[in-house]
C-alpha cells in the first residue's frame, strides 16, 4: 500500500486541533477526517471516529499495526509542516 496523496486543511481557530487531513492510498481508496492534534508531547494524528452509544469514541478506519500507523503519521505530519512553511512564506511576501 502506498499513500499517493495527502490533502491538509488547516484549522483557523485556536486550540489543539491543527488540521483535518484526507489521504489517498494507491490512487484508489480515500480516508477523510484524519485529525492533526497538538498534544503534550507534540503533534500526532487521530483517525476518523464516531461516538458510540456508550459515549466512547471508536475509530471508523484505522491501521492494523503500529508500523503502518507510524508511516501514515510521518507522511501526514511532514505534509502539515510543509503547508505551514508555505503559508509562512506567503505571509512574508
Strand order of the largest sheet: 1-2-3-4
User: Whole-number average pLDDT?
Assistant: 92
Highest-level CATH class: Alpha Beta
CATH homologous superfamily grouping: Stage V sporulation protein G
Content-based structural category: alpha+beta
Distance between the termini: 39 Å
Shape: globular
Parts with pLDDT < 50 across at least 5 consecutive residues: none
Strand content: 35-45%
What is the annotated CATH architecture? Answer: 2-Layer Sandwich
Overall number of strands: 6
Radius of gyration: 14 Å
Descriptive account of the structure:
This protein is of the alpha+beta class and 93 residues long. The chain is 28% helix and 42% strand. The protein is built from one helix and six strands; from the N terminus they run ββββββα. The longest helix has 26 residues, at 66-91. Keywords: Cell cycle, Cell division, Septation. This is Putative septation protein SpoVG. Belongs to the SpoVG family. Could be involved in septation.
Give a brief outline of the structure:
By secondary structure, the chain is of the alpha+beta class.
